[in-house]
Amino acid sequence: MIDEIPITSEPPGLTPEAVEYRARLCSFLTEALPASDRTGRDRREVAGWSIERHREFKKELGRRGFIGTTWPEEYGGHGMPAIFDLILAEEMEFHDAPAGAGADSSIVYAPQLLLRRGSDQLKAVHLPRLRHGEETIFLGYSEPEAGTDLASLKTTAQRVDDHYVVDGQKSYSSSAHFADYCLLAARTGHDRHKGISLFWVDMSLAGITVSYDYTITGARHPAVRFDEVRVPVDALIGAENEGWRNLMAAIDHERSALASAGLIESHLRRLIAGTRALQTATDSDQQRPHRLWDKTFDHTVAVLSTKLLNLEIATQRQSGEVAPAFPTLAQFVKRSTVRELEMAGHLQSSLTSDHVSDTVSDFWPDVTYDLREHAYLRGAAGGVDIAREVIARRALGLRASS
Q: pTM of the entire structure?
C-alpha cells in the first residue's frame, strides 16, 4: 500500500534507458519479494535475511543483468552512466531486498576498486564471478582498538618471499561469516598513512577464524582474526604502501552506496500513510494530526534533499571527480533522517488509541525493531562524529583550533 503514495517523479534529464532500467528492476523486486516473504526473517543476521536467501538473491540479480551495468564492456559491463548504480542502490534498499546494494560490498563498491586499481590477474579471476553474483566480499577495515580511525590499524602484512604473512584482528565485519574474500587493509610500513596496503584475501586460507558479537536485536556481527595467514603477493591491490589512497576512494564509493535514499523514502511513505490513517480516525478538532503533518513535511524535505544530493554525486562521478566530502555529507543526512523518521513512526504508533495504533502498525509493523536495528548507523562506515569532521575539513575548509 505504501507504494501507492507518490513522493517524487524521476529527476529531470534521466535517460530512457535509466527509466527502463528502474522499471525493470522494480518489477523484478516486487515480484521476487511478496509480502508473504517478509515472514520468518532470520533475525540472527544484521540485514534480517538468511545466508542462503542472500546468496540466492544475489545470483538472481546477476542472472538478470542488474550487476555491473556501469562497468566497461571489456569486463562484461554495459558502460552505462553512474546513475545506474544509484538506481540499483535506491531500489534494493527501498524494497528491503536481500543483498541490498548498500549492505553487500560485492555489488557496487568493491568491484569499482578492483576495476580502478586491481591487477589484470585479479580482474580476470574475480570480475566475472562478481558480475554473476557468485562471489561475496567483506570489508576488512575496522579493528577493535582503531574503530573509525583507519590510519591507526594494527593488522600487519609482512612480505616473506612470494607471500605476505598477515596477523591481526578485524571487527564489525559485516558478511565475513559467509564471505569468499576479504578486502583487507593491513600495515606494510611504518608511516601512518603511507604504510598501508590493500589485499584481496581468500577466506579459505589457513589461520583465519571468525567469531561473533551480538547487537541489541540479537543479530550476530562477525569479528575476524588472522594468525600467520600466508597471502600470495598477487593478492595485493595496487602498489605496496599505497593502500590509503585506494582505501579513501573505496570508502567514498561505499558511502555513496550507503547514502542511498531508498530506506528513508520507504520510511517516509510509511509515515505519510500512518499520518493519513491517524487523521481519518481522529476528530478534526484535535491538533495531533496537524502537528504530525508539520513534522512529516520536514522529513519530506530531508528525503528529497538526500535524493538530489545523491543525484549530484552520480553526475559528478560520471564526469570523473566527486567534490570533497559530498558522499560523507549525503550519508550523514540520510542517517540522521533515518533516525528522525523511525522516532516519528514510533511516536505515531505509541501515542494513539488502540484502534488507531492497530491501523498505523499495518503500515509500520517493525518500527521498534527498526530503531534498534539501525542504532549501529551512528558508528558504522565512519560514524557521526567522523562524518562531521570530514565535512568540516574537506567541504568547509575548517581547521581544528589549537
A: 0.85
Closest CA to 372 of 157, 216, 193: 216
The per-residue pLDDT for 142 is 87
Give the per-residue pLDDT at 204.
97
Contact 281, 359 (CB under 8 A): yes
CA–CA separation, 354 and 36 (whole Å): 25
For residue 398, the SS3 value is: coil
- For residue 211, what are the β-bridge partners? 223
Q: How far apart are CA 108 and CA 122, in angstroms?
A: 17
| 143 is known as an active-site residue | no
Q: Between 366 and 112, name the one with better pLDDT.
A: 112
What grid cell was written down for 284?
Answer: 478534526
- Closest by CA position to 8, among listed 374, 307, 368: 307
Place of cell 508539520: 294
B/e letters for 164-192, b = 16+ CB within 10 Å, e = fewer, are bbbbbbbbbbbbbbbbbbbbbbbbbeeee
Distance CA(388)–CA(383), nearest Å, equals 9
DSSP code at position 23:
H
Q: How many CA atoms lie within 13 A of 83 on its CB side?
A: 21
Alpha helix positions (H), 218-287:
243-258, 262-281
- Kindly state the helix (H) or strand (E) to which residue 229 belongs, with its residue range: strand 220-232
CA distance 224 to 137: 13
Which residue type does 225 have?
Answer: R
- The pLDDT tens digits of the residues spanning 385-399 come to 667 776 777 666 777
CA distances from 389 to 146, 255, 374, 392 (A): 17, 15, 22, 5
Q: Which of 45, 90, 143, 254 is catalytic?
A: 254
Asked whether the beta carbons of 216 and 210 are under 8 A apart, the reply is no
